[in-house]
Specification:
With 345 residues, the protein is an alpha/beta fold. The protein contains eight helices and 17 strands. The strands form three sheets. The chain has a nine-stranded mixed beta sheet with strand order 2-1-17-16-14-3-12-13-15. A six-stranded antiparallel β-barrel has the order 5-6-7-10-9-8. It has a two-stranded parallel sheet with strand order 4-11.
């Protein structure tokens, strides 16, 4: 019997030293390190990200997430002076669905004064829900009072800088809606993207609005909205091979693919990929080094398990041990990995 999502994620643990968490991106972005892992042999090569182009051929498709991170983090104070923070998730029915803290001290009908750069507005809690979730009434321009929502493992160690408003967006980002970046895409520069296109590789945009589940250890990821345009679906159908850039894109494409073609249009994915999952989308896979005990690691272990049945978790742990023994940096602003199917070369 397959393990539950919680036990699989919890089983993928490793010790991540704090000094291996990248607090700033590599400059230029495409100069970060790239660990290339061939499967099923588990041969490891050490490269830089711009070497990705050497593993792509004319006629291939590089699928990237073009969602844009919104200024979702807002801070304010109650009438008593107590500090409040909300993470705006999505607008629905005239209200914002949000996570708030300190949740235990937030009540329905409470008004919060929000300030930024000398300007202020008020938001009101309309409904308190389980798990620190709220519906809040906010002005239409509330995002003008927000800050870029850096992940907690960065935001707890330093202040948001002006550069983060660009650094935490990918060069592909267009459609606002994410509360976290599709971090595998952070390594591309405009120039490198043009080089890839010039080689005859089709860069295919996929829109998936990333939710907060990406940061929750041992948790099943929540539902996320995605959209695949007609031209994107056709480009993927016609591709020689597909290189999936990021766990968000993998989740969207695995949901949109019916086994023979990609279905275009909007959708919602609740897909949880863990070892034993039967992948339908063939090709290579670019991803970052992820937090311990998270569903993102479960997906990466599942991808390895595709080539080494029953050995995905243990193999992933060995790969991470090698990365930790070397100079690799981890998480959103860190380095990247490329998994390639050596049987398809």
């Amino acid at each position: 019997m397959a393990q539950t999502d919680t036990s699989v994620a919890a089983s993928i643990d490793y010790n991540l030293p704090q000094d291996r968490i990248a607090l700033y991106p590599k400059q230029p972005r495409d100069a970060c390190r790239l660990m290339v892992v061939s499967l099923p042999s588990v041969r490891v090569r050490h490269a830089v990200f711009r070497d990705l182009i050497d593993y792509l051929e004319p006629g291939d498709a590089l699928a990237v997430n073009d969602s844009r991170v919104i200024n979702a983090r807002i801070t304010g104070r109650k009438s008593s002076g107590g500090k409040v923070e909300f993470l705006l998730l999505e607008r629905a029915g005239g209200y914002w669905r949000a996570l708030g803290r300190p949740a235990v001290r937030l009540k329905e009908d409470m008004e919060i004064m929000v300030r930024k750069n000398g300007q202020s507005c008020s938001v009101k809690i309309k409904e308190k829900r389980p798990g620190g979730s709220f519906l809040i009434d906010a002005p239409d321009n509330i995002l003008e009072y927000g800050f870029i929502p850096l992940p907690p493992y960065i935001g707890s160690k330093r202040s948001v800088m002006e550069e983060d408003y660009d650094d935490y967006q990918t060069v592909f980002s267009q459609h606002e809606g994410s509360v976290a970046s599709s971090t595998a895409g952070l390594h591309f520069t405009p120039g490198f993207a043009e080089e890839i296109k010039a080689k005859g590789i089709n860069i295919i945009p996929v829109t998936l609005h990333v939710g907060p589940g990406t940061f929750r250890p041992s948790s099943r990821p929540g539902a996320e909205r995605y959209s695949l345009s007609g031209p994107s679906a056709a480009g993927l159908d016609d591709a020689r091979r597909i290189c999936v850039c990021g766990t968000t894109v993998m989740r969207a494409l695995e949901t949109a693919y019916d086994g023979s073609r990609f279905k275009h249009g909007p959708g919602v994915t609740e897909l949880y990929i863990e070892p034993g999952y039967k992948f339908r989308v063939p090709g290579s896979f670019v991803t970052n080094f992820h937090l311990p005990n998270t569903p993102l690691l479960s997906m990466v272990a599942a991808y390895i398990d595709r080539f080494l049945p029953g050995r995905g978790v243990e193999t992933l742990k060995r790969i991470y041990e090698e990365a930790l023994a070397g100079p690799y940096m981890f998480l959103s602003y860190g380095d990247a990995m490329l998994f390639i199917d050596e049987t398809a070369i």
